[in-house]
Amino acid sequence: MASIALAMGIVACSGSRCATSKPYVADGGDRDFRVRGRLVAAPYPRDPASEIPSSVLGSAVEANNAFAIDLYSHILAEQPAAGASNVITSPISASLALTMAYAGAGGQTAREMASALHFRDASASIFNGQNALSQALASRAPSALAEAEKAAASFKQPPPSAVDFALDVVNSVWGEKSYAWNPPFLGVLAKSYGTGVYGEDFIHSFDAARVAINDWVATRTADKIRNLVPQGALNERTRIVLVNAVHLKLPWATPFPQARTRPDTFTTADGTKVSANFMNREGSLSYEDGVDATIARLPLDGGQVSVIIALPKGDLGGYEAKLTAGTASVHLPDQTARVALSLPKFSFATSSFSLRSSLQAMGMVQAFDRSAADFTGMCSTIPNADKLYVGDVLQKAMIDVQETGVEAAASTAVITLAAALARPLHVSMNVNRPFVIAIIDEPTGAILFLGHITNPNETGPK
């Protein structure tokens, strides 16, 4: 089983009959809110990141990274055989989708979600922190492109293509159009996530809503994530789908010369030897020769986002079992060496899969309980004692590593239903066996993608 890198959430009502309340429209006493087409949104602009204290951003990153390692360990535990398949996750996408759902949670449901998401003392300001982080990430690609354009002009080279520079983090929420979504919930969505609620007729046309959601995700990920919500995942009890999409595409700061790419042998987790195309380059890299793994940092253009490659010295499973948010494979090495690096090219994509059992094992239990879940913060006017509860959380992701750069994308769906500098060393690093890969935002330390490659020839489901 492989995990994915984008987050999206779906919420539905738990009873046999669902709300018939009128949609919340900016009308009369509802002057504080407005409807733009079918989008019901609070009239507030997104809070600027400049007004959010750096300590709040730091607390959110700390929580997200702890959640990333916790979630990854539970995903690995569900694999039928350790290291049997490639895995790629986007914990930041899952965190963002789930915190949108958390904005509407109450009581024990909210406490369990905060614990599973590792909020600790950050729960009161987590929305501000996620907002600041999302806006910081959104600035990385324009900054990298501007630097690349300046360098190209200095050396009188052709300008870089803007389509090769992307780090987009976007959110959307799709809700049953007959529900009156609570103003405080809409306020959080507007101020911290830059979105509102798109009204959909889930009761009568849930599959049309599914197609609209999938089209939105595909558009926001340059068509890299398609069919996030598979047929059958929604039904007439679906009430709200909370979606986050992440798309990253950046060149390497120092590309791998294509002329040096050549076939070599890669030994998979079960000892099978396969032929793969290996990229080769030599130069100064942040590098660590640790007790358990050899680790290298490969910066992407702009120097703010980096790929970390960790090559375990022993068993991949044993190494991953020791991972923490502070280990070097999900952190930046602090040494420098001149490294002759040989790294296999690979392109891998997952199918949509469920995070439900992993999240339950992490303590997020009540949110999935149709009788006990408390999401009254989303909608408090549900008749007939019906309740909102999370039916499932889906993810899907891809990663492509080539000589020129890296592209990765993902989306997560939360589905809720209605029920009732040192002296340089000279070293070689041949990544010819299973390895851990992470993509890190350097200024914040946020883990954007995390996974492992056990066979560079495995491309994932077609």
Task: Explain what the structure shows.
The chain is built from nine helices and 19 strands. It has 462 residues and is of the alpha+beta class. It has two domains: 6-251 and 348-419, 2-Layer Sandwich (Antithrombin, Chain I, domain 2); 258-344 and 423-453, Alpha-1-antitrypsin, domain 1, CATH 2.30.39. Strands 1, 2, 3, 5, 6, 7, 13, 14, 15 and 16 form a ten-stranded mixed β-sheet that branches. Strands 4, 8, 9, 10, 11, 12, 17, 18 and 19 form a nine-stranded mixed β-sheet that branches. It is globular and about 65 Å long. Mean pLDDT is 88; it is low at 1-33.
In CATH terms, what is the fold-level topology of the largest domain? Answer: Antithrombin, Chain I, domain 2
Order of helices and strands: EEEHEHHHHEHEHEEEEEHEEEHEEEEE
User: What percent of residues are in strands?
Assistant: 25-35%
**Quick one: CATH superfamily of the largest domain?**
Antithrombin, subunit I, domain 2
Rg from C-alpha positions?
22 Å
